[in-house]
UniProtKB/TrEMBL annotation:
This is Purine permease. The keyword Transmembrane applies. InterPro entries: NCS2 (IPR006043), UacT-like (IPR017588), Xan_ur_permease (IPR006042). The chain crosses the membrane at residues 12-31, 37-54, 97-116, 125-147, 159-179, 186-204, 224-245, 309-332, 338-355, 367-389, 395-418. It comes from the Bacteria.
Amino acid sequence: MGRTLAFGLQHVLTMYGGIIAPPLIIGQAAGLSTDEIGLLVACCLFIGGLATILQSWGIPFFGSKLPLVQGTSFASVSTMGAIVSGAPDHVHGLQSVFGSVIVAALIGLLIAPFFAKVIRFFPPVVTGVVITMIGVSLTPVAANWAMGGNAKAENYGSLQNIGLAALVFALTIVFSKLGNAAISRLSILLAMVVGTLIAIPLGMADFSKVGVGHIFAFPQPLAFGMPIFEFGAILSMTIVVIVILTETTADILAVGEITGAKVDSKRIANGLRADMVSTLVAPFFNTFTQSAFAQNVGLVAITGVKSRFVVTAGGFILVVLGLLPVLGRVIAAVPTPVLGGAGIVLFGTVAASGIRTLSKVNYDGGYNLIIVGASVAFGGIPIVAPTFYDHFPTWVSTILHSGISSAAIMAVLLNIVFNEIKGGNSTKGSVFVAAPPRMVREDELDNLEDGDSYVGGKLIDAEGNEVPVVTATQQKVALTAVVKEHEKQNAPVPESVTPALRRIEAHERTNPPGGH
């Protein structure tokens, strides 16, 4: 029991920085108080623990029964931030977020058994774009945190704020560099702790309100009111849920391979159902979409501890932490620049994960390059120009105001247009595909003479005369005529003519007629 709890705690510490980031981001975007953000954090831990227990322990039809840790998904953060930012007030924004998550989770629950058929529309070229844009779209959040988080504050963007963020960033890199594996894996969390301790004597951290409120409390259901259901928010969140289903499927397959467990369509469906039922329940307890944490899959591989009951123990630890709102208030009191320094690394790592996925995509001779290029650029519009969609209908603005939703929609549509519906595709691939390295066959040089040059699309000889550019058939006719004329005159055929004819005949045997 002791070792099981110790290994379970290690899983919690590994994902702790990631699981508390979404409620902090959304809480900041919604303008919540420290106490309210603390509530979001506590609920996030509580539901994440229950979801982890359901996924790893499992009950009939729900749970993969594999060592998979569940928590609030990063994939939904950008979309939820867009929904909250577009709302008239933070309460309405959160209610709209919760409503969209509920409906999207129901849709995800319905399609989970059939997802093996849907997943073909989410190959690496699509998921790679989406994951990359998750990290990229969150980078402005990290920058805002590093500057202080509140644009109206006098010290917003001060060297003191940015300096503290830079210190946390540097500490994260240093801790990652150290040879100790445990310190390296906990680098973000440790850097935040050290940064906060340094901020206290500088007067940049206020923990005076941590003791205000209950130390132990059950999360209050619907603390921000009843959910609100808006079409645009639901549509964009449904896209995010499909991405989450794709990520969880990949994590199930990965951990199955690591543990040697048999993973079939039934097990995947059970795991996805657990994912979606947890996501369905989450909004009623003031939290968001749930998904498997990839970093914990890596931890299973690194430690070699493959027991699902270790992860179940980690789930119980998360539940206990979620019943301690005082802990949520401590986390919410961490100085915003500290979060900014850690966020730059954390969000950059998410983007890097997407780039790693895109590196597996084949770009030769197809349309994947234009799919990636157009989708990333389209997803970048609301990031670099946040007011771009302000004059569009509200439901359009809600969907496309998020870089993740914009990129996902474009990537899915272009993948269908180019890779699923292949009718009308050019046989030579896209004009945007990177050109192959330039080269000339050795036998083609035999037709050139010293002094020849290619100018303005024309071949010019040393005397300035244009050399005709003809097809292989035209060249064969002309050379054959030369041979007949010389034979008619009983003159020797020029030495270059016969080899040229042989090359043309060899070319015709290996290539269809009409080649140049």
